[in-house]
Write a structure and sequence with these properties.
It is a single chain. The longest helix has 29 residues, at about 160-190. A two-stranded antiparallel sheet has the order 1-2. With about 325 residues, it is mainly α. The chain has helices spanning about 20-30, 45-65, 65-70, 80-105, 110-120, 135-150, 160-190, 195-210, 225-230, 235-255, 280-290, 295-305, 310-330; strands at about 265, 270-275. Bound molecules: benzoyl coenzyme A. Benzoyl coenzyme A (BYC) binds next to helix 2, helix 6 and helix 9.
Length: about 325
Amino acid sequence: MYAQLVETGSTRLRKLDELSGDERRFQERIDAGIKIEPKDWMPEGYRKTLIRQISQHAHSEIVGQLPEGNWITRAPTLKRKAILLAKVQDEAGHGLYLYSAAETLGVSRDQMIDDLHSGKAKYSSIFNYPTLSWADIGAIGWLVDGSAIVNQIPLCRCSYGPYARAMVRVCKEESFHQRQGFDIMMALCRGTPEQKAMAQDALNRWWWPCLMMFGPSDAESVNSAQSAQWGIKLFSNDELRQKMVDQTVPQAEYLGLTIPDPDLKWNEEKGHYDYGAIEWAEFYNVVKGNGPCNRDRLKARVDAHENGAWFRDALLAYADKQAQRSTAAAA
Ligand code: BYC
């Protein structure tokens, strides 16, 4: 597994009667649905797991601006340009709420940014694929933001207060993003045969990477069991992936598009769609840094940080000057 393997303090899940003192009281609070707040006692593994997940989530929002930002100047109308600009700006906001939520756990913004730039911290595999046509912007909104909502609605009820509260606003905005993507797909599917073919091509390329966004299968997911016990994960990777498939198939039918999976079939007995095998080798390859755009994405972030150094220096110099002036005025 290509995982950071955060040391959670135990090699297997312990039952309530095996926990002692603070740990037991902590688990009882989680089991009673009481939110954990920054100043509450928490096991070190819980703190580290949240820093890992929330910072990776924040990095995904920030890196996630790159594939769509690529199309702001090329959006087909002024209205589409304004909508896309607002959407990409929302993603920056999501990154900032999430970095702030992670900071409440005692990690600094600088440390998180360093970990992203050094390759230690991950960001979502999905943002390592290129946006080749305008239809990709529709597909991202429809499928990537659609998947993000499925994954993130349960996070609004997760055990850590600042993360749960940040997710409420994020989910409301993601819902607008998903609709704007579906609206682009509807316009293309009602357009010329060439436009419809462009929409189909985008669906063909984004479908499988979107299923991979939910993470490895439950059998391979190293962090799930502990995160579930701690109330960070309320549904498993496979459960959420299934929800995404079930909700998206009728939407594709409405658009008149074909999901690129010959094994996709309604299973009457299960009440769910069965879907074909995911190419996990591709997922791990992307997570290891070898996807089509990994190097470009990281370079864009590092360059932006380095090019913004003068601005951060200027802010600090201004803050120092203001502090000196107020000290002088008080003297
Ligand atoms: N990509 O044990 P598992 C968005 C890693 S933002 C890369 O199941 P966990 C959007 C995983 O980190 C989308 N790596 O892990 C933004 C772990 O490695 P580490 C981001 C992945 O944490 C802008 C290892 O594989 N959403 O939607 O229990 C525009 C084993 O996995 C991926 C979030 O971050 C992946 N796809 O579960 C539009 C949501 N999947 O860390 C849209 C919050 C797994 O041990 N995060 N890995 O080195 C989560 O819900 C969970 O962290 C995950 C993974 C379900 C993603």
